[in-house]
Design goal:
This protein is of the alpha/beta class. Helix 8 runs parallel beside helix 9. The chain has 25 helices and 37 strands. It folds into five domains: about 160 residues, Gcn5-related N-acetyltransferase (GNAT) (Aminopeptidase); about 280 residues, Succinyl-CoA synthetase domains (Rossmann fold), CATH 3.40.50; about 140 residues, Rossmann fold; about 170 residues, D-amino Acid Aminotransferase, Chain A, domain 1 (2-Layer Sandwich); about 80 residues, Dna Ligase, domain 1 (2-Layer Sandwich).
Length: about 900
């Protein structure tokens, strides 16, 4: 609840709560409500007694009746103790707070080994904001972690709101009517339907929370200044000059002026006799928290904090930044920044420039998210120079709250945005980023530039979990999500220029019409390097080709069904404006659904001669972009073509694996961690058992300590075996044979033992096996399938062919589970050594489906079991039919940092 304007709120309750020793801090979450406002969700504590009593006093008698099925005007001391004292395992209550007020509570109480009863109570003034749905999601997540798989509830028939919470959650709900009460029962395991419901709600609420920032009716600049050259003065000027039709207010505690740069001025935001939707904050870092409390008292919906002095300066700043974020969210406000450049919205009726950049871009169809404040100004200048209009722009600085994920949720449903650009310095929640980006890319092209890939560097101000995965993981994630990855800002704008004005290509074949042989050769070389094909021979015209010559050639290529895209290269003769040639190009391209790019007079934008004007004086769709040279044009076209192929790809799905026993695997892991609380590497028997839950069988191997023992074991197996060295340093050595194959009898085994011991020496520990005996597998190609639990990305699966060269060249593919059928197929095919699997130099093609099946099973295992921190099927022999797993390693360890993208919605 918002305090009166003349009363500043205190620090919110969660900062003062004294939690019990067993308090599950991981259950805490900042959440976005249905109306876009934020709130804090956390487990209840004994210290919340007064908070609960005050909450219950505000709840209507009808809501109390729905909860307890009888009049229940007030809580007794015994009730309060029972409701606030829980064990967080068999009995759990989660509360939602805004500022210092509890506005909702949900709880479950175990009624059986795997069953619990669930109930909710929401303050009447906050019903309809989605609290019941959020509480159900988080209670279900906590219950699953505590071994509960089913919820039951009793609901009065006329309590339609609560019945709706259950029936619209995406679970399969069973209902029975008994003694005047509806009995509701459902399994709480996440399903495709429940995931879809939660993600749709997440998108709507997070999009609305960003819309509240981008479409204010009134803005206050806190820290406004009369002095030119100051941040506070620049913000006032830029907002005033942007054409913002709403109300502007300048706030400066150190001035008695009634106006600043023509904007009404006040000492504090609370003195403004009007509502304020957005506050742009430019005060000293030490005073920002006080400003947040003032804004909370005023009912401000969002903040843009341009002030520096937060996480980028070290530990003190990091604490200050965390406090700022928690404080703002606890009072329902989202934060852009701190250390941000700000935000821009060019939409008609908004025209808002709340940034430090004096450049107000023209209205357009491209949206841009940038983490770097320093890079934001040159980005805006470069886009203006290219004539690329923007729909909206956000530079988030330290990105303490609002992130690229939030903006992608907003742009997904923003009709004025057709292309999204991302400049990323770090990924706070890679799993959610991948999920949200994939959904957006299925509707609109998303072009992304990730800096720091080579060094894995993270700017000081951005608080993220540091990944230990190779840079190739980011590139693979971009491909998996359908993002158009680029390497430079120039390439970012080149691709944006094409996508903003031209349709997507329908294939890889490109027709070239040119009056320069040299530039045609550059275009052809670039096409060959990026996988594009020529649609027949290029139409090479003479250097002094006329408009009629260009028109005739272009008519031919546009009529040619072989051509999917057209590149026009025009280098004019002396003293020619090219106007007639431009007219010929636009006439030929009019009405075509083939993308057209040009190198026209070496222009780096949409030339006036090739522009289709829009209503705002910009370039509408159908305008033909020009690039400095054909290499840039073809490079942008190649990126657009790859994205178009991703959009056209056949339907893909996550395959069903009916033989998987997830509960059995979970029980095995829990029991293993009881025996090994700090984690350990599994022995062979445990590895085989764990993998068996997921339908993965391993060819057994048997350690042997002597030649006699090796002979005996081989005889037991019926010979046709191998003798293999076990030490890691001998594996895959190009100069040493670590495996002796085709052992048919005792003589073969003794000869193998003698030669292997001469090669590798005698084990230093006579009780430790240096070799193993294993049955021969069918001949095939050796591959490696691995998975790792990364602190930032969560589970990541990789694939590659076995061998030193693969390791040295980093020839591996990566994907984040869950894997679709398309993901697994692409993993196998995108490694450079993939031809070895398809009959290279006359060899037999191997069973690709067997590889993909193993990838799906490993993906499912790592997705289900986050305690499996490392898994390697490090020797898989793929034959013409089937694949044999020969060697594995698995490590299980307690999960110290839970995955960030859980089924229950939360801000991270």
């Amino acid at each position: 609840m918002t305090p009166p304007d003349d009363q500043r709120p205190d620090e919110p309750a969660q900062y003062a709560v004294q939690a019990p020793a067993d308090y599950p801090v991981d259950f805490e979450a900042d959440v976005v409500l249905r109306d876009g406002a934020t709130a804090h969700l956390r487990p209840i504590t004994p210290g919340d007694a007064e908070l609960l009593v005050a909450f219950y006093a505000r709840v209507s008698e009808q809501s109390k009746y729905y909860r307890f099925f009888a009049p229940y005007p007030q809580l007794s001391d015994r009730d309060v103790a029972r409701f606030t004292q829980v064990d967080y395992h068999d009995r759990l209550a989660l509360i939602v707070t805004v500022g210092n007020d509890m506005i909702g509570v949900g709880r479950y109480e175990r009624t059986g080994r795997r069953t619990a009863e669930v109930a909710f109570l929401i303050e009447d003034a906050h019903q309809g904001r989605g609290l019941g749905q959020l509480l159900l999601e988080h209670l279900a997540q906590a219950a699953r972690e505590n071994g509960i798989v089913r919820f039951v509830a009793e609901v009065l028939p006329d309590n339609r709101k609560m019945i709706t919470v259950f029936t619209e959650a995406g679970y399969k709900v069973a209902r029975e009517f008994e003694d005047g009460v509806i009995m509701v029962e459902f399994d709480i395991a996440p399903t495709d339907t429940s995931f879809g419901v939660m993600q749709a709600r997440e998108q709507r609420s997070e999009a609305l929370s960003i819309a509240r920032l981008l479409t204010p009716s009134s803005v206050a600049i806190i820290g406004a200044s009369r002095r030119e050259g100051t941040i506070g003065n620049a913000l006032v000027r830029n907002l005033r000059d942007s054409g913002f039709p709403g109300r502007l207010y300048a706030v400066n505690a150190d001035t008695s002026a009634t106006e600043i740069e023509g904007v009404p001025a006040y000492g504090t935001i609370r003195e403004i006799d009007d509502t304020v939707d957005l506050a742009v904050v430019a005060v000293r870092a030490e005073t920002v928290a006080d400003v947040v409390l003032d804004c909370a008292a005023k009912g401000v919906r969002g903040l843009v904090v341009v002030s520096s002095g937060f996480a980028e300066i070290g530990d003190e700043g990091r604490k200050r930044q965390r406090h700022l974020t928690g404080l703002a969210r606890s009072y329902g406000m989202r934060v852009i920044g701190p250390n941000a450049l700000g935000l821009i919205n060019t939409a008609a009726g908004v025209s808002l420039n709340a940034t430090l950049s004096p450049v107000m871009p023209s209205r357009g169809r491209v949206a841009f998210f940038c983490q770097s404040g320093a890079l934001g100004v040159p980005i805006l200048a470069d886009m203006a120079a290219r004539g690329v209009g923007l729909s909206s722009f956000v530079s988030a600085g330290n990105r303490a709250d609002v992130s690229g994920n939030d903006l992608m949720q907003y742009w997904y449903s923003d009709e004025s945005t057709e292309v999204v650009l991302l400049y990323l310095e770090s990924l706070g929640n890679p799993r959610k980023f991948s999920r949200v980006a994939r959904r957006l890319a299925g509707r609109k092209p998303v072009v992304a530039l990730k800096s720091g890939r080579a060094t894995q560097g993270v700017p000081l101000g951005q608080l993220v979990r540091r990944s230990k995965l190779p840079p190739a993981t980011i590139e693979s994630m971009f491909r998996q999500s359908g993002l158009i990855g680029v390497d430079t800002t120039g390439e970012l704008f080149d691709v944006a220029q094409l996508l903003a004005h031209q349709p997507l290509p329908k294939g890889r074949r490109v027709a070239i019409v040119s009056n320069s042989d040299a530039l045609t050769l550059l275009a052809l070389d670039t096409m060959a390097g990026c996988g594009l094909e020529t649609a027949g021979e290029p139409r090479n015209l003479s250097p002094d080709a006329t408009a009629e010559d260009f028109g005739a050639a272009l008519s031919e290529v546009f009529a040619d069904d072989r051509a999917h895209s057209v590149v026009v290269i025009y280098t004019p003769p002396v003293q020619s404006s090219g106007a007639e040639v431009a007219a010929a190009i636009t006439a030929a391209a009019a009405g075509s659904d083939k993308p057209v790019l040009s190198t026209f007079l070496a222009s780096r934008r949409v030339p006036e001669q090739l522009r289709v004007p829009d209503g705002d004086g910009g370039a509408a769709r159908g305008s033909i972009p020009s690039f400095l040279n054909p290499q840039y044009a073809v490079g942008a076209l190649a990126k657009a073509t790859q994205y178009a192929e991703w959009r056209r790809r056949s339907d893909s799905h996550i395959p069903e694996l009916p033989d998987v026993d997830t509960p059995g695997a979970e029980d095995f892991v829990a029991e293993y961690l009881q025996r090994h609380p700090r984690g350990a590497d599994l022995n062979e028997a445990d590895r085989q058992r764990l993998l068996s839950f997921y339908g993965i069988s391993v060819l057994p191997s048997f350690p042997v300590l002597s030649a006699d023992e090796a002979v005996a074991r081989a005889a037991d197996l019926g010979f046709e075996v191998i003798l293999k060295a076990t030490a890691e340093q001998w594996r895959m050595r190009p100069d040493l044979a670590d495996i002796w194959r085709h052992i048919h009898d005792e003589d073969d085994m003794r000869a193998a033992w003698a030669e292997m011991t001469r090669t590798f020496g005698v084990a230093a520990d006579p009780g430790r096996a240096q070799f193993v005996v294993q049955k021969m597998a069918p001949p095939g190609v050796p591959v490696v399938i691995s998975a790792i639990e990364d602190v930032s990305f969560g589970p990541v699966v990789s694939f590659g062919l076995s061998g030193v060269a693969t390791d040295l060249l980093g020839d591996s593919s990566y994907r984040m589970p869950p894997l679709t059928t398309r993901d697994a197929a692409e993993m196998v095919r995108e490694v450079r050594a993939a031809p070895l699997l398809y009959g290279y130099r006359g060899s037999d093609p191997v069973d690709i489906s067997a590889i993909e099946n193993l990838l799906h099973r490993v993906s499912r295992l790592t997705l289900d079991l986050e305690e499996v921190v490392k898994l390697d099927l490090r020797s898989v022999l793929v034959a013409v039919q089937g694949a044999t797993v020969l060697d594995t390693t698995i490590r299980i360890a307690p999960n110290e940092k839970p995955r960030q993208d859980t089924p229950a919605r939360r801000l991270t």
